[in-house]
Amino acid sequence: MMKFHILTLFPEMVQQGLATSILGRAAEKDLISIDAVNIRDYTQDKHGKVDDYTYGGGAGMLMQAQPVYDAWKAVAKPAEGKKPVRVLFMSPQGKTFSQEMAKELAQEEELIFLCGHYEGIDERVIEEIVTDPVSIGDYVLTGGELPAMVMIDAISRMVPGVLKNEDSGVTESFQENLLEYPQYSRPEEWHGKKVPEVLLSGNHKKINAWRLEQSERRTEERRPDLYAKYQEKQKVIKKLSAKKRIF
User: Fold this and answer.
1) How far is it, in rounded angstroms, from Cα 16 to Cα 210?
2) pLDDT digits (tens, 9 = 90+) for 55-78
């Protein structure tokens, strides 16, 4: 079972967002577990405060180190000899999340997501517990809950058994630096547009060749940055193949 812990001020937000559709079914089957931890439950302030003004001035309030640290400690249960649980901090300053990162993180048995709010989190606790600052793009959101949900969705798809069709997780966009090919369903003609003949042929060799061609064309048009990486990889593969033939 893949365990996700989300440290947040809004546990109901992530619980509702991740409890439906494919992820909801995966949780019911014990393929994944989603634990939304309310940081407010760990504050020592009698009024339930988790934020305060920033030293040096500035707009807004900052989440304090103590409740965040204690919430993390309750979940991570750090102990000598125990493998540390990776803590992903949702931050626009982090490394940009990608399909490759999702695949890598899916190898973990347990992950902790730290969601900031207000003007952020006291830097001292970030330095103390965070292993991976991660961004989902170059923009700023009101909190880390949405990025955490996006990442959990993407990572969960890599967990065996979560997707009904096991091929789905490895034939979608960004695999091998290519965008996914166009797909069609019934009817064969809709609004005057017909399904490509090759897809009706039953010839899987031709269908696979067509899909690859469409993926290459679509990637070149829409994501030239990915297409450049794909071309470089193909060059390396050709060179290695040529060396094998020589030997």
Assistant:
1) 40
2) 998 878 999 999 999 999 999 998
